[in-house]
């Protein structure tokens, strides 16, 4: 039995996703032409050729000016922008209940919520440990306005939200005040899909909910009739690769009047006077769209969504599920000759309620951690695109790697001297074999069996390796002898 036959025997539904192999050889043929193994879909998805062609044709055949004026080229562009806005709302089944604000990216959407939410003393900002830094950063707005800030921990090693502790924290809210809960629908660190029923649970206890859907929507359907967070953030390049520079904030109509913008800008006002030093903000989404939108790229969002619809988000999700499950099983089975595990996975090791993001570290036969930066470098030499570090998600990283508040405070005390090397030095000085960072492989629309096989072959190459590289220096782990010093 070949490895592929074994794989499809274990994951028979992979065969139902064969249409994606066809797309791989047409729409994504550049991957194989350049011998690239792309495993950074959580960083950004890849675009299909047809998306580029359709967008190029639209731009080539039209004359488009800056929108929101009455002249013909401006009106033509306004039509495209507004049509795309309606399309995105329909895509998320949100047309009746949400307002859509175009932003530069998911971070731009999150910042709009942070700066406009009516945080005040008595109110609370609660975030899960597992959050992107652009969600963590909202705590600075909350703090500055006197709201209490708290984090809901994760369970270990699964890195799922600790529902009991979250329940206790949710119960602390005074429903008469403004409280905001923020969590990701899917973790960009561990791939965990957090339960969406938390939205209603929190709302019933007097919370508004911000759902960061950036890592979820590239391979899952988000139906905003079924679950109705007050705010939702997305970046479109994460869904279909092109264009970059456009994201969205979806605001539930009932939450819209709660947001108060701290300033005004070109395009956001119905009236502004220098002499009276007064302004009247627009009463709709325009109040949140500062200055000129990325208008030429916005129609490419409709093209991208139509493309995803034509492929079928369920098929994409199913392929990712099969490949991820197989990858996890194979990684966990990898052993050095002395029987020790080669790989440690952070987050759930099995498929239910997890997506295609797999975060790991590699260990030598003595159980010492291999330097993930070196692993990334070696992967790069083989044309494999991985991502390493903490992926802008320090809370999940701290939980995954067992880093304590004391460890982090010691690192913070290094001040300007802090970098990965000095921080690892501090941890080792305390006698810890902890890592501050990991390797992330993420699977997406154009991934296939061959990609994952090549990645597994690459990881298997570390079997029995006893050398660790830190910066430019390579050590033999057992004797601590320097083998190569390139510094
Ligand atoms: C879950 C999640 N939220 C937010 C972001 C921020 O997205 P952007 O960099 O497009 O603003 C990312 C990016 O990786 C993410 O994965």
Would you mind describing this structure in some detail?
The chain has 487 residues and is α/β, with parallel strands linked by helices. The protein has helices at 3-10, 19-26, 29-33, 49-61, 72-91, 106-116, 133-136, 138-144, 163-171, 198-204, 236-240, 298-311, 313-333, 372-381, 394-400, 405-413, 420-429, 449-460, and strands at residues 37-38, 98-103, 124-128, 148-152, 179-184, 208-212, 231-235, 247-252, 269-273, 278-281, 343-346, 357-362, 384-385, 387-389, 438-442, 467-470, 473-476, 482-485. The strands form five sheets. Strands 2-8-7-6-5-3-4 form a seven-stranded mixed beta sheet, sandwiched between helices. The chain has a four-stranded antiparallel beta sheet with strand order 11-12-15-14, covered by helices on one side. A three-stranded antiparallel beta sheet has the order 16-17-18, with no helix packed on it. The structure holds pyridoxal-5'-phosphate.
């Amino acid at each position: 039995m070949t490895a592929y036959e074994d794989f499809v025997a274990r994951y028979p539904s992979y065969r139902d996703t064969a249409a994606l192999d066809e797309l791989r050889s047409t729409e994504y043929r550049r991957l194989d032409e350049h011998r690239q193994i792309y495993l950074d879909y959580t960083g950004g998805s890849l675009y299909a050729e047809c998306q580029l062609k359709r967008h190029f044709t639209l731009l080539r055949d039209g004359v488009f000016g800056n929108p929101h004026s009455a002249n013909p080229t401006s009106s033509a562009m306004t039509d495209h922008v507004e049509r795309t806005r309606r399309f995105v709302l329909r895509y998320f089944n949100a047309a009746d209940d949400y307002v859509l604000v175009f932003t530069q990216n998911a971070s731009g959407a999150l910042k709009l919520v942070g700066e406009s939410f009516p945080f005040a003393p008595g109110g609370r900002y609660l975030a899960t440990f597992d959050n992107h830094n652009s969600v963590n950063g909202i705590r600075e707005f909350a703090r500055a306005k006197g709201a209490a800030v708290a984090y809901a921990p994760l369970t270990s090693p699964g890195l799922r939200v600790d529902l009991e502790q979250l329940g206790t924290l949710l119960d602390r809210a005074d429903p008469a005040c403004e409280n905001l809960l923020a969590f990701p629908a899917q973790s960009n660190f561990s791939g965990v899909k957090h339960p969406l029923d938390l939205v209603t649970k929190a709302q019933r206890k007097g919370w508004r909910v911000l759902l960061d859907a950036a890592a979820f929507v590239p391979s899952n359907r988000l139906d905003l009739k079924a679950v109705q967070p007050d705010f939702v953030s997305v970046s479109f390049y994460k869904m279909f690769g092109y264009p970059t520079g456009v994201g969205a904030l979806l605001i539930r109509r009932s939450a819209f009047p709660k947001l108060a913008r701290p300033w005004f800008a070109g395009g956001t006002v119905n009236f502004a006077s220098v002499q009276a030093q007064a302004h009247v903000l627009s009463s709709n989404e325009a109040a949140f769209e500062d200055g000129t939108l990325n208008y030429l790229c916005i129609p490419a969002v409709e093209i991208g969504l139509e493309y995803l619809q034509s492929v079928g988000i369920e098929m994409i999700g199913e392929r990712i599920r099969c490949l991820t499950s197989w990858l996890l099983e194979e990684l966990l089975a990898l052993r050095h000759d002395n029987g020790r595990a080669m790989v440690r996975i952070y987050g759930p090791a099995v498929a239910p309620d997890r997506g295609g993001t797999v975060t790991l570290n590699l260990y030598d036969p003595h159980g010492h951690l291999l330097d993930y930066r070196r692993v990334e470098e070696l992967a790069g030499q083989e044309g494999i695109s991985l991502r390493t570090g903490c992926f802008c998600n320090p809370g999940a990283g701290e939980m995954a790697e067992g880093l304590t508040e004391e460890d982090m405070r010691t690192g913070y005390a290094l001040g300007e001297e802090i970098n990965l090397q000095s921080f690892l030095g501090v941890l080792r000085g305390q006698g810890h074999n902890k890592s501050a960072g990991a390797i992330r492989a993420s699977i997406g629309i154009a991934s296939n069996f061959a990609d994952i096989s090549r990645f597994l072959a690459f990881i298997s190459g570390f079997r029995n390796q006893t050398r660790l590289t830190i910066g430019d220096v390579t050590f033999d782990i057992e004797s601590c002898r320097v083998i190569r010093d390139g510094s």
